Amino acid sequence: MIESLSLTVQILIFIISGGIIWYFSNKLSHIVDFINEEYKLGAAFGGTILLSLIVNLPEVAIVIKGTLQGDTSLAIGNILGGIAIQTVLLAFFDFKTRKESQPLSTITSNTNSISQGVFLSLILALVVLGTQLDSMYVSTRISIIEVLILIAWVLSLLTLKRCEAGNLIPMPEVNANHGIKTTRKKAIFSIITIAIVILFFGFILAETSEHIAHSMNISGVVFGATILSLITALPELSGGIAFIKSKSYNVLISDIFGGNSFLPLLFLLANILNKGSILPEAKKADLYLTALSIVLTLTFVIGMIIKFPKRKFGLGVDSWVAIVIYILGMIGLIFI
Fold first, then answer.
1. DSSP label at residue 309
2. Residue-wise over 188-213: b if at least 16 C-beta within 10 A, else e?
3. N or C: which end of the chain has fewer CB within 10 A?
4. How far apart are CA 168 and CA 279, in angstroms?
5. Per-residue pLDDT reduced to its tens digit, 176-223
6. pLDDT tens digits for 124-167?
7. DSSP string over 195-238
8. How far is the C-alpha of 178 from the C-alpha of 30, rounded, in Å?
9. How far, in whole angstroms, is CA 99 from its chain's centroid?
10. How distant is the alpha carbon of residue 214 from its chain centre?
């Protein structure tokens, strides 16, 4: 049906779908805060799991559609490009917190934040390893490399839980109202409804993006890593802004690093649907994006370790470095 529409209409549907995802994502943070407090999940631990599952539903839809249709380029590009753009969002959030005297990386420098960044880099390194395997050795419904990625993700959650249990994560004062008046049942119903809406419009994004990329003669990898990744990063953007308003800076880091660590798990989903790993199908641009994501992640991790005492023109030094690396990285895609 969508393929019969004009390119202008397809672009309009694409933008509207992104706007709807943004609107409903704005409602997530307060509901997640409420559920975390009511069920004693722990702000960082609970936020990482719940937010990772929900805000990445557009990527889930894109992976499912692309894999079932046998076209994985858009899915791979969106997963790996999405990690890069969501990581560089930390520079934007650093700017949003410019009233603080210290950079965001210094404020959030703790064992948990650093370990999450390290685990994310480990998971991305496993993705690179998976791309180098011969497809004949990973042509089973569940392949070893995807299992290793899952194990690394679970270990990152266990580390996060231990950090919370050991009071290694500075937590903000709890706001009992969470900005909303609701009950447990209403909160659960709301979060399920939001998840369904985000997933549905994620499928619309997947459908329209495929035709837009084809009509504009843009490769699936490039479109997935740039325009589509920007749209699917809207939930992280809106959630981050909400966390900044409540000064929940450590939860913000868990949302970004935790969400990015969750994205490679979608390769396991694609593996099951495809009855074989799709990682060996990755192209040079995919490897390039993975390396870019590792460099960006470690840039902020290094900032947390060094703890820059002051900002430079409103941002931490690590944020400026990340912005330059990301811009150069996107330009570099042209030469691949």
1. S
2. bebbeebbebbbbbbbbbbbbbbbbb
3. N
4. 36
5. 445 556 778 888 888 889 889 888 888 888 788 777 877 777 766 677
6. 999 999 999 887 777 787 888 999 999 999 998 888 777 766 65
7. HHHHHHHHHHHHHHHHHHHHHTT--HHHHHHTHHHHHHTHHHHH
8. 5
9. 26
10. 25
